[in-house]
Specification:
methyltransferase, Rossmann fold, alpha/beta, Methyltransferase domain-containing protein, about 230 residues
């Protein structure tokens, strides 16, 4: 079961307007994703459907979302209605319900660090993408994990922590080279890499956070294509 099941409703309310989600991650990921009009897009780790809603607004022809949390999928359904295909699915396992070459874009926003078997999800993303498809991935910046957790920057391990207001989570901390090795093993190459800066809207709503994120990264995002 997803860690997020225990606090799905709290997370949904938080993520809609939070500094790190609304003014940092989503702008960066959507910019890397580019135009989606007429495209088939898979959002893996879709959470409460914030990306799904935006993809539909931007004209995606078909939107599919999956998440390991039943409650997150319920929240996503409440947000997008019947306009997207939604499934409860553990991304550590294959996706037999997705046809090979059936999508032009995959989004994996702030999800990969929660997976114990990330290469499974990456291999499946590679399989379901068309030959000229792209996947956009965002995750916690390895430098940020090292600054927060200490120890060796080169540690590659599953750790437990408490985020926000008592959200107990498990996630992987790993150096950048380990992430790149996972991409390569799945058959991807990096087309673009972004260390996001705060969106202009953050300065007005969260000036202290914006000032910090102008000095040090919290997330990192990649656009990958098939090798």
């Amino acid at each position: 079961m997803s860690d997020y099941e225990a606090f799905a409703d709290q997370f949904a309310a938080h993520a809609e307007g939070s500094a790190f989600n609304a003014h940092y991650d989503r702008p960066a990921v959507l910019a890397l994703l580019g135009p989606v009009t007429g495209l088939r897009v898979l959002d893996v780790g879709c959470g409460p459907g914030l990306y799904l809603e935006e993809l539909l607004r931007r004209g995606a022809a078909k939107v599919i979302g999956s998440d390991a949390s039943q409650r997150m999928v319920e929240l996503a359904r409440a947000r997008v209605g019947e306009n997207a295909e939604l499934r409860v699915h553990d991304l550590n396992e294959p996706m037999p319900w997705m046809s090979t070459g059936s999508g032009e874009r995959v989004v994996m926003a702030l999800t990969i660090h929660h997976l114990e078997r990330p290469r499974v999800a990456l291999h499946e993303a590679h399989r379901v993408l068309t030959a000229d498809g792209r996947i956009v991935i965002s995750t916690v910046h390895p430098i940020s994990d090292w600054m927060q957790l200490g120890g060796s920057y080169f540690a590659d391990e599953i750790v437990e922590d408490t985020w926000n207001v008592g959200w107990d989570v498990r996630f992987r901390r790993a150096p950048l080279e380990a992430l790149v090795a996972d991409f390569k093993a799945a058959g991807f190459v990096i087309e673009d890499l972004v260390e996001p800066r705060p969106a202009p809207s953050m300065a007005a709503a969260f000036p202290d956070v914006a000032e910090r994120l102008e000095r040090e990264p919290a997330f990192i995002a990649f656009r990958l294509r098939k090798a």
